[in-house]
Design goal:
12 helices, alpha/beta, single chain, 3-stranded mixed beta sheet, 7-stranded mixed beta sheet
């Protein structure tokens, strides 16, 4: 039976934390361990966590200051590396979702088929639900799972992620010089270093949509269109570009020749129209969604990638 360490970050999550923890403790056919970092909650979250910790020795709890979700998960990664025991696999977990009983064992069975000497990552489709876990219409995620595509769009949802020790060691060796979110960083690093990514299109997690979500998956057409217009024509903080440069700087000695060359081309893309065009017409940068292909190339053209 494989040993899995779940990394959970919490913040003012008293409303749904019971249901989430119950769904974790009901996972089938794996040896479950849970490492929780509370990010400075001011509600009853900590008292609820302490109650579960008292009943379940497999739960470890860290009480921290409020640093935000992405940094809280990064702290969990480094805490996991400090633990004496080496777990078979590691999984990210949000505080307000609900996991199907086969969520972890499904990921473990798929990851077991791969060579554990390379970084390996499992990601999955989510099933959107409302506050009461009633199913909502969910758009199927279509992705190519290529390094180039990971530099174009954010398509990996952290709460579905399960990964091996090799990937944990790579992402935890030091703090990244720049990252947008912990899940995007983990996904990009895995592909950048020649790791394997498995995508499961059968949802194993009920991804709850509610007013307090830090990040949610349910957006209507108008919201999506507005976000694209703002990103392309009005406001750009060059998140994707900065992420690419961080990968080049932080993993320079571990990148393949192909991926290093790709990142160097991105680094210099804004220096001439010729270099912009070489990326715009490159066959390497392909996403399955035509809108993503278009918005990426527009961003490169206008120098706001």
């Amino acid at each position: 039976m494989k040993n899995v360490l779940v990394l959970m970050s919490t913040f003012n999550g008293e409303r749904f934390i019971d249901e989430q923890l119950i769904s974790l403790l009901n996972q089938k056919n794996i040896k479950l361990n849970i490492l929780i970092r509370d990010d400075g909650s001011s509600d009853r979250t900590v008292s609820l966590l302490k109650k579960y910790k008292k009943k379940h020795p497999s739960i470890k709890l860290i009480l921290g200051n409020n640093i935000g979700a992405k940094f809280s998960f990064l702290d969990l990664i480094h805490e996991a590396l400090k633990l004496n025991m080496k777990y078979d696999y590691y999984a990210f977990c949000d505080q307000d979702d609900y996991w199907k009983q086969e969520k972890l064992i499904t990921a473990v069975n798929k990851l077991n088929r791969l060579d554990n000497n390379t970084p390996n990552l499992y990601i999955g489709q989510t099933q959107l639900v409302d506050s009461n876990l009633n199913y909502l219409k969910t758009k199927s995620l279509k992705i190519n799972l290529t390094f180039e595509e990971s530099l174009m769009i954010y398509c990996a949802t952290g709460c579905t992620m399960v990964f091996n020790l090799k990937l944990l060691q790579k992402i935890g060796k030091k703090y990244p010089s720049y990252f947008v979110m912990h899940d995007t960083w983990v996904y990009q690093v895995c592909l950048a270093l020649g790791g394997k990514v498995i995508f499961d299109n059968i949802p194993q997690i009920l991804y709850r949509q509610h007013n307090n979500n830090v990040f949610g998956g349910k957006k209507n057409f108008i919201e999506v269109f507005k976000a694209r217009v703002i990103r392309i024509f009005v406001k750009s903080d060059n998140e994707r570009y900065n992420s690419a440069i961080a990968l080049l700087n932080d993993f320079n000695d571990e990148l393949s020749v192909k991926n290093k060359s790709l990142l160097k081309n991105i680094k210099d893309y804004n220096s001439s129209i010729k270099k912009k065009l070489s990326i715009i017409f490159s066959r390497r940068f392909v996403a399955k969604d035509l809108k993503n292909n278009f918005s990426f190339r527009i961003a490169v053209l206008f120098g706001i990638y």
